[in-house]
Design a protein that fits this description.
Bound molecules: flavin-adenine dinucleotide
Helix content: 40-55%
Number of strands: 6
Oligomer: single chain
CATH class of the largest domain: Mainly Alpha
Radius of gyration: 23 Å
Structural class: alpha/beta
Number of helices: 21
Number of domains: 3
CATH superfamily of the largest domain: DNA Cyclobutane Dipyrimidine Photolyase, subunit A, domain 3
Largest sheet: 6 strands, parallel
Strand content: 5-15%
Mean pLDDT: 95
Distance between the termini: 57 Å
CATH topology of the largest domain: DNA Cyclobutane Dipyrimidine Photolyase, subunit A, domain 3
């Protein structure tokens, strides 16, 4: 047996489906996919992070008397070349977004592909309601997994002892520069590494449920990027926190990730269409969209969140909900545009979670927010950043203002000399307009 172990979004050696199922002669590989990379800017932080993680994986594999061949190119062409070496099969972890599915189906025709659920806990194909249809609502979905979520431990995958490294030119490693990228400065969360991030979790858990929405605090786990690239597996995270005090609510959040992956698997069209099937006449004004992207809406909390995202690649969950509501309800712009923008910017960009959450925010999704639930950004900033700590840390021109002004529509303009835009929409009017339009759209489909 000769296998290719194709590492992609599972850059680890622990709890690895690839290493568990490997047998015979193996060629572990990673491909920097030209098709994906060509749309990214030269200083994309994710590419630097993946590059460092791939080198780290190579070193870990070397310690196990294995290695990692690293390619840059089009997967189809690379596998066509590898086929000549007589490999029997390719092992990899499965991805359910449309690009990945199409790519994998093409590779499967070159060398048979064995796909494993390696980035999620649950196999979505194996979990259905009693009537044989998939769950669409989170709470019953989560309750139905009671046995799993309440268990003390989920078995992790062991490493096969029946493997031998296939001789290959492992020494040739493309540099970031040769692929058209430069080394970006990474945020501290990523440079400190997953071990340190994990160490901080126990002290966060006791207040997680209460503090997780206060975006000026560092109260959440910061694990999403590590989960996204498989530096750690969700099973490892589950096992790590399971027997800690106050872990229940955190585990529930981990299963939102599972839920959105489950929804994308069962409803692949939700990547492109409103899950609810309603037809909406969105606002197509490009200038409105650009003002949102750049953080120039004149609403302090929205602008701080967007500018912070543009600068760092991070956005707190509560802020993601607020800016998504503002874009899709107050500006009435299609969630797909917001989803694409997040895909470009978020370090933890995960197709399933991003699509599911955007559809949730736009009230078009599975188990979505009701269409009449429109976040008032001013109420939200008052509730979760009363002293304006986060807003002031991002919008320097507002740093000397009384924070109470941030929570009143156009409040900051009581300072006449301020160079900051006026609010681009009236919150109450735009809310009413969105609700009317949703009502119209829902009637159209009745
Ligand atoms: C509009 C929008 C877009 C989003 N896009 C993404 C995305 O592209 N990638 C992504 O990983 N998350 C996404 N999320 C979910 C959530 O915002 C992030 O997972 C979370 O902010 C990451 O921070 P953390 O690791 O500190 O989370 P914690 O609060 O510590 O949660 C632990 C883990 O649980 C999972 N999780 C928590 N909340 C959610 C949620 N609501 N949905 C799905 N998984 C969740 C994540 O894997 C997270 O790392 C999105 C949410 C919204 C509202």
């Amino acid at each position: 047996m000769k296998q290719i172990l194709w590492f992609r979004r599972d850059l680890r050696v622990e709890d690895s489906a690839l290493l568990e199922n490997a047998k015979g002669e193996v060629l572990p590989i990673f491909i920097f996919d030209e098709e994906i990379l060509k749309s990214l800017p030269a200083d994309d932080k994710r590419v630097t992070f993946i590059y460092q993680s791939v080198i780290d994986l190579k070193l870990k594999l070397l310690k196990m008397n294995l290695d990692l061949a690293i390619f840059y190119g089009k997967p189809k062409e690379i596998f066509s070349k590898l086929k000549k070496f007589g490999f029997d099969e390719v092992l990899c972890s499965v991805d359910f977004d449309s690009y990945a599915k199409k790519r994998d189906d093409e590779i499967d025709k070159i060398i048979p592909l064995k796909r494993f659920i390696d980035s999620f806990i649950l196999d979505p194909s194996k979990h259905l309601k009693n009537d044989g249809t998939p769950y669409k609502v989170f709470t019953p979905f989560y309750k139905s997994l009671n046995l799993l979520t309440q268990s003390n431990h989920i078995e992790q995958r062991a490493i096969s002892d029946n493997i031998l490294l296939y001789p290959f030119a492992y020494i040739e490693v493309p540099t970031l520069e040769s692929m058209g990228f430069k080394t970006a400065t990474l945020p501290e969360i990523l440079t400190k590494g997953v071990k340190k991030v994990l160490e901080e979790i126990p002290k966060k858990l006791s207040n997680y449920k209460e503090d997780r929405d206060f975006f000026y605090k560092d109260a959440t786990s910061n694990l999403s990027v590590f989960l996204r690239f498989g530096i750690i597996s969700p099973i490892m995270v589950f096992n790590y926190v399971r027997n800690m005090k106050d872990s229940e609510f955190f585990i529930r959040e981990l299963f939102w990730r599972e839920f959105y992956n489950y929804i994308l698997f069962h409803f692949p069209n939700s990547e492109f269409d409103n899950f609810s099937g309603i037809d909406i006449n969105w606002n197509e004004n490009e200038d409105d969209f650009i003002r949102w992207c750049e953080g120039n809406t004149g609403v302090p909390i929205i602008d701080a969140a967007m500018r912070h995202l543009n600068e760092t690649g991070f956005m707190h969950n509560r802020l993601r909900m607020i800016v998504a509501s503002f874009l899709t309800k107050n500006l009435f712009i299609d969630w797909k545009k917001g989803e694409k923008y997040f895909a470009l910017k978020l370090l933890d960009y995960e197709a399933s979670s991003n699509i599911g959450s955007w559809q949730w925010g736009a009230s078009t999704g599975a188990d979505a927010a009701p269409y009449f639930r429109v976040f008032n950004p001013y109420t939200q900033s008052k509730k979760f950043d009363e002293k304006g700590i986060f807003i002031k840390s991002v919008i320097k021109e507002l740093k000397d203002l009384d924070s109470r002004l941030f929570h009143i529509e156009n409040g900051v303009h009581s300072d006449l000399f301020l160079s900051y835009p006026k609010a681009m929409v009236d919150i109450s009017l735009s809310r009413k307009r969105a609700i009317e339009k949703f009502k119209e759209a829902r009637n159209e489909t009745l």
